[in-house]
Amino acid sequence: MKYMILAAASAAVTFAALAPAAAQPMPPQPDTPAYKACMAEEGELRPQRQALSRRFRDHEAGLERVSAELAAHEAASGQVVRTDSAAVAAYNARQEDLNAQAAGLNAEGISLEKELHAFNARVAAGNIRCGNILAPYKVRKKEK
Asked: What is the pTM of this model?
């Protein structure tokens, strides 16, 4: 979340006193329920962000693993005796298994991207709602 230092707030208040018609309401202050709600929401989002990052890393590792297995499997295709029906059946079964793993990872990737978009939308909404809260550094330091 973005925060402004309190000194900037006093300049805004001075400006608002000079031009009351253009003045906007003061954003929530650190001792208000709105500030506490924003800090609580930020605290809730941190573990979700970490979990999403971990799941994306695991997904990427799975994609790399299956990709390497597919490449190795395709490289071994030249060694399969085409007249041996059992060897061809085993090769084809392994190919189908790898294709199924790849399809599962692709579906998981689509789901992860949807979750990420929803998470980013929640963060963006929080930034809009909480981004103008004025809090001096010492107050923010205590909340962490």
From this structure: 0.63
